[in-house]
Specification:
Length: about 80
């Protein structure tokens, strides 16, 4: 299975229920919208997009960002401090 880093942007600021639905994502508010970012395989990406639809959120953007992923598309191991 291959993982890619994805950025999903939805319109508006999501509330507590939305934050719980996307707890595996890093969540940031940008210019009145919400940015969700996570390393996902294709199945997890489609699951996240299904949650966007189920919550009635307006999808603005989906971008694949691979700059930090390790060999074979797996999320990199944590670096020692």
């Amino acid at each position: 299975m291959y993982y890619h880093r994805y950025r999903i942007v939805v319109a508006g600021v999501i509330g507590d229920a939305g934050r719980q639905a996307f707890e595996e994502f890093k969540i940031n508010e940008i210019g009145g919208n919400t940015m969700l970012r996570a390393d996902l395989d294709q199945s997890a990406l489609f699951g996240a997009l299904s949650r966007v639809l189920a919550l009635g959120l307006e999808l603005i953007e989906v971008v694949q960002e691979d700059s930090d992923l390790a060999e074979h598309g797996r999320p990199p191991a944590a670096k020692p401090a």
